[in-house]
Structure formats: structure tokens, C-alpha cells
Amino acid sequence: MASVGFIGLGNMGAPMMRNLLKAGHAVKAFDLSETARKAAVDAGAVAAVSAREAALDVDVVVTMLPAGAHVKSVMLGEAGLFAAARANTLFIDSSTIDVATARVVAAEATTAGHAFIDAPVSGGVGGAEAGTLTFMVGGADDAFARAESILAVMGKTIVHAGGPGNGQAAKICNNMLLGISMIGTCEAFALAEKLGLDHQKLFDIASKSSGQCWSMTTYCPVPGPVATSPANRDYKAGFAAAMMLKDLKLAVEAAQGSGAVIPLGAEAAQLYALMVGSGEGGLDFSGIIHMLRGKA
Ligand code: NAD
């Protein structure tokens, strides 16, 4: 069993950490929120007084933080985790952050004599609780090999996507496609409504035809056809529109930095910005159908 420092005990981090405890790992946990630290102790972790303390004398450090700026500020510099941790600590950053920051941080980890992988996840809070997350991993082969048994406790599908930053690249490419396909699916239903075509009929046909995609078959944005989709519970997230906007902004930023041309990804970012700006950022991202019907 490993000793693990876990930093960032929010909606995702807390259940991921609990799965490490259930598997028998010893966890030193830290979050800026005292409530989160108390809940971690109740679950069986030892609370650290700072991120730095959580990273002292452990085999592995897992971070699950909001964005790249948080990851940088926690890891780098004289007061950062790379300076505090013992030599050759394995760092697993599961936060969704920009590719450029992931690569900078990975290089700094190597310079400091540590192993580092970026390992963002898909699967949401439900997947974090059930231990069925998908991990998209970027980093060196030996770091990936060391991380696999830890990731397997928190996830079901673990894919090594390539060198440093490639986990984040996979995450934003996937989520950009998801944002675009959700908007397309909503547009198809909104058009069907105007044309007098029943939701269920469109679903029965499109879910078996060339228009089928995950947004249609698993997460259908209208109530009825897929019982488990958020449309059946007034678009309660699920995957919040604000989170989708975050990932689409990362995709736009990555495209600008790399010269990729993503007209639909950029348009999706603008449409989700409108939805979030209208006060619906907490709704599930499939709730964008209201806006696309012109009823936001
Ligand atoms: P969250 O806001 O619930 O949790 C983030 C936690 O980090 C908070 O508890 C906050 O107090 C803590 N934190 C911030 N700065 C800190 C610091 N310097 N030191 C210690 N703790 C600090 O967010 P979340 O939903 O758990 O998401 C975490 C990451 O996972 C994000 O990057 C998000 O994009 C990604 N993600 C989220 C989901 C989801 O469905 N929620 C799905 C996939 C990926």
C-alpha cells in the first residue's frame, strides 16, 4: 500500500480520495476548505495543515484542483510541492488544465527529480464515487507504469495518451467534440419540434441512423427517450454548462496556441458563454436546448 498526499477535496477530489482510503492506502489530505478537511478525516484520512505538508514523505501526490493557475501555484517555486517532496515522488495531476501549463509543470517536476503525469478524468461525480472514471494520461512510460495501480483504484479505463500534456490534450479534444455534438443534437430536436416531428420518433430514427452520437443515445437533451438523462430532471447537472464552458475555452486557447482551426469549437464556446451569462451555468450542459429554441 502506498502513502498518498491528496490535495483538492472538492466534488471530484473527495470521492476519489475516499476510494484510495477504501483500497487501504494511507492518505494525508489537504484542501483550503476546513469543511472538506473535516470530511476527509471522518472518512479516515489524516488532515494536513498545508498542501506542502500533504506532499512531505509520501510515495504519491494526487492533485484535483480547479485550473492551471492553482496547479502552478501549488507545485512550483521555493514554497511549492516539488521543492518540499522527497526525491522521486510520483505526482498525479487529475485537474483539467491547459496543455501548456501541464507541459511546463511536467518539465519542472523532472528538473526537481520527480515523476509527473497529467491524468484528467471523464465520468463526473458519479464516476468519481463509483471508482469508474476514465483517466487520460500524459507522461513518461515509467511514470505511467508507477501510477497505474493508484489510478485503477479510482477509475475503470486508463489510457496512456502519450508524453506530457497529452492527457489534457485528449480531454479537451473529447469535450470540445461533446459540446459541439450536444449543440447539434439540441438543434435537431428544436428543428423537429418546428416541423411537427415527435421527439421519440426522431430518437428512434436518429439513434439508429447516421446522426447517432453519445449526446443523442446516452444523454438525450429532451425528456422521454433516455430515462437517465438530465432532461428528465429539469436539467439538474450532471455536467454543468459552466464546466463545459471551461473546457471549451481551454480548447479555443489550445487551438490559438497550436494553429488548429476549430470554427465549430469556437462557436460552441460562444453559445455556452451565452448560456452561462444568462445565469444558467449551474444547469446541465444539455439544457442549452432552451436557448437554442429561443426560450432562454
Ligand atoms: P471543486 O471546485 O468542487 O473542487 C476544487 C477544490 O480545490 C475545492 O474544494 C477548493 O477548495 C480546492 N482548492 C482550490 N485551491 C486550492 C489550493 N491552493 N490548495 C488546496 N485546495 C485548493 O471542483 P471539482 O468539480 O472537484 O473539479 C476539480 C477538477 O476536476 C477541475 O479541474 C474540473 O474541471 C475537473 N473535472 C470536474 C468534473 C465534474 O463533473 N465536477 C468532471 C471532470 C473533470
Please identify the structural class as seen in this structure.
alpha/beta
Rg, Cα atoms, Å: 20 Å
The spatial strand order of the largest sheet comes to 3-2-1-4-5-6
Give the proportion of residues in helices.
40-55%
Principal-axes shape call: elongated
The overall average pLDDT, rounded, is: 97
Cα-to-Cα separation, first versus last residue: 51 Å
CATH homologous superfamily (4th level) name of the largest domain: NAD(P)-binding Rossmann-like Domain
What CATH architecture of the largest domain would you give? 3-Layer(aba) Sandwich
Largest sheet: 6 strands, parallel
The CATH topology of the largest domain is given as: Rossmann fold
How would you sum up this structure in a few lines?
With 296 residues, this protein is of the alpha/beta class.
Key words describing this protein structure:
binds nicotinamide-adenine-dinucleotide, Rossmann fold, 9 strands, N-(1-d-carboxylethyl)-l-norvaline Dehydrogenase, domain 2, 3-stranded mixed beta sheet, 2 domains, 296 residues, alpha/beta, 14 helices
What's the arrangement of secondary structure elements?
Layout: E1 3-7, H1 13-22, E2 26-30, H2 34-43, E3 46-47, H3 51-55, E4 60-63, H4 68-75, H5 81-84, E5 90-93, H6 99-111, E6 115-118, E7 121-122, H7 124-130, E8 133-138, H8 141-154, E9 155-162, H9 166-194, H10 199-206, H11 214-217, H12 241-258, H13 263-280, H14 288-292
Parallel strand pairs: 1-2, 1-4, 2-3, 4-5, 5-6, 8-9
Antiparallel strand pairs: 7-8
Helix pairs in contact: 1-2, 1-7, 9-12, 9-13, 12-13
The structure holds nicotinamide-adenine-dinucleotide (NAD).
Nicotinamide-adenine-dinucleotide is lined by residues 7-13, 30-33, 36, 51, 64-66, 70, 74, 95-96, 121, 124-125, 239, 243, 246.
